[in-house]
Amino acid sequence: MDKIPLDRQTADRLLAGTLDPDDAPPGWARVASLLQAAAGPVDPVGFPHDESTVAAMVTELTERSPASGGVGSRPGSRRSRWWRAKLVAVAVGCTLVATTGLAFAGALPAPAQDAVSTVLAKIGISVPRHNAPAGPEVPGPSLNGLCQASDSGQGGTHGNRDDAVPFQNLQGGAGDLCSTATPGNAGGNGNAPGQGKHGPAVPTPNVGGSGTGNDTSGDASSNGSGNAPSHPRSSADD
Amino acid sequence: MALGEPFETVLAAARTGAQWAVAEMYRDLHPSVLRYLQAQEPAEAEDLAAEAWIDVAKGLARFEGDETHFRRWVFTIAHRRLVDWRRRTIRRRTSPAPPDALAEHSPSGDTEAEAMANISTQAALARIAALPADQAQVVLLRVLGGFSASEVGAIMGRRPGSVRVLQHRALQRLARDLSSELVTRQARGAM
Q1: Residue B45 — pLDDT band, cuts 50, 70, 90?
Q2: Residues sharing a CB contact under 8 Å with residue B153, sequence separation 6 or more, in sequence order
Q3: B-chain residues within 8 Å CB-CB of A71?
Q4: Which of A25, A65, A110, A210 is 20 to 30 A from residue B163's alpha carbon, by CA?
């Protein structure tokens, strides 16, 4: 069967139910009647879920209303929760970084410093404890040299020697480090206890260490580890 | 919409969970929504409509717009529920126009006017529902929802031009079927 001509305006009127069948173009009267019948009055009989659906909607809306503090209490609440979570995460991250940085600098209070040191040690990060001397580790021969410089009395109060951190640390909380050093052995063959040629270094402060490594013990650098870092002459001897 | 109160008042009250406002919205739109769903999935229409209204309640706080937008929004949700259900059940049409029902409500008179005067709303909806699914949806949304082609396109996720093509095919098909049916009946009557 051939198509019956239908312009756009007639189609819109048909679908809107505003085209009376008597006024319809040839071939469209039955369609006009059909569409008007489809849009006819609603049969009032039977909406069995009316009350239950409305009650469910009210429950849903009440739980989400601002008064109930529900999750949907306001538009964009989901986005707000997301931002809160992000802020908390950033705050925690910043705190961790700051704490770790302060721990590396040894600037935390003693208990916190010890705690952070213990925790970070478990994941392979070395952080000084609160009573550990600050500054890089210094091999034994340099320690001996530092002790000798300290004992020699050079610098003194007016030379700011007593204010120098390395000298302060010699008498620090860990006890007198010079008392554990053995100048004889160090100066002789460099085998001070725990300071063998390839042995572990004794942590010694070296904050101002920019010197030349010419220890007063002489042999320490030649027969000891052979690569002793300089002691802080710049601050001790000035 | 035939709401007694201004739409904004009803909407604001409904957002707080006021039962009278929710009921008013529901009573106003539910018959059209249910009829739209019943024409396509008679057995599931009520459940689908209930799911759609719960979705409306969930999203009401985020809804922005006037009464026209609200009407379109509700139909969009109902349409999506229908599409989702069909996808889940992997079937396009569980209850197309019941042949018995169509025969029962089909015109029986000798003249065209007499025949069409007796057609019921249910039979008319069944006839439309017998169209291919997308064509039926377009016609039902336009007839029951009173939406324009653009609005139907927004609801169905199609372009207005595509909607117009679908509605044109649907109307041509209805005209052809009704005409051939009339010719058949007239031939039988002459025998």
Answers
A1: very high
A2: B159, B160, B162, B163
A3: none
A4: A25
Averaged over A7-28, what is the pLDDT? 90
Q: What is the pLDDT of residues A111-122, one digit of tens each?
A: 788 887 887 787
At a CB cut-off of 8 Å and minimum separation 6, what does A56 contact? B50, B53, B54, B57
Residue A173's nearest CA partner among A228, A218, A128 is A128
Q: How far is A81 from chain B (nearest CA, A)?
A: 16
Q: How far is B12 from chain A (nearest CA, A)?
A: 11
User: What CA–CA distance (Å, rounded) separates B30 from A163?
Assistant: 87
Where do the domains of chain A lie? 82-122, 140-236
Mean pLDDT of all residues belonging to chain B:
84
CB contact under 8 A, B178 and A30: yes
Contact A38 B144 (CB under 8 A): yes
**pLDDT tens digits, one per residue of B126-153:** 999 999 999 999 999 999 999 999 999 9
Residue in B closest to A41 by C-alpha: B121
C-alpha closest to that of B28 among B67, B64, B55: B67
Ordered structural domains, chain B, with CATH: 1-94 (1.10.1740.10), 96-191 (1.10.10.10)
Under DSSP, the state recorded for A141 is H
Is there a contact between A213 and A228 (Cβ–Cβ < 8 Å)?
A: yes
Query: Which among A34, A48, A57 has the least Cβ separation from residue B54?
Result: A57
Contact criterion met (CB < 8 Å) for B176 and A16:
no
Nearest CB partner across the interface for B61, out of A34, A35, A74: A74
Write phi, then psi, for A46 (nearest 5 degrees): 80, 90
pLDDT band for position A66 (cuts 50, 70, 90): low
Contacts of B101 in chain A (CB under 8 A): none
What pLDDT is attached to residue B190?
62
The answer to whether B184 touches A35, Cβ cutoff 8 Å, is: no
Assembly ipTM: 0.79
Yes or no: say if A138 and A116 are a contact pair by the CB < 8 Å rule: no
Q: Do B120 and A42 touch (CB under 8 A)?
A: no
